[in-house]
Specification:
Blueprint: E1 2-4, E2 9-11, H1 13-28, E3 33-37, E4 41-44, H2 46-61, E5 65-69, H3 73-81, E6 89-91, H4 94-104
Parallel strand pairs: 1-3, 2-4, 3-5, 5-6
Helix pairs in contact: 1-2
Length: about 100
């Protein structure tokens, strides 16, 4: 399942809550293999990071996985600073993320 933002967003506050709720709804619908396209995310704060970590935790508890794609340099810098780049499976493109799922079986 591909999950992307259709407009430029700051992944903070209410936007983070909406994202987290969207992921929970997808999991409830049985979609446990998610690729999140962050191309339109211009800024991420601690709420946004928490939403990503929560999404990963929920997906993995449902025996699924979550991959990040098109991570902008500003977001990648925050992920590196918080060492979350070691937690998430990050890919340069959506296609690469999808191929990683196919390779995993």
């Amino acid at each position: 399942m591909l999950l992307s933002f259709v407009r430029p967003v700051n992944l903070e506050g209410d936007e983070s809550i909406q994202f987290r709720d969207r992921v929970k709804n997808l999991i409830a619908d049985g979609r446990t293999r998610l690729v999140v396209d962050l191309n339109q995310v211009k800024f991420i704060d601690s709420f946004g990071l928490g939403a990503l970590v929560s999404a990963l935790r929920v997906v993995r508890s449902a025996n699924g996985d979550l991959k990040l794609a098109h991570v902008p340099s500003s977001v990648e810098a925050v992920l590196r600073l918080t060492r979350l780049n070691t937690v998430f499976d990050i890919h340069p493109t959506m296609e690469d993320a999808l191929k990683a799922f196919q390779a995993a079986g």
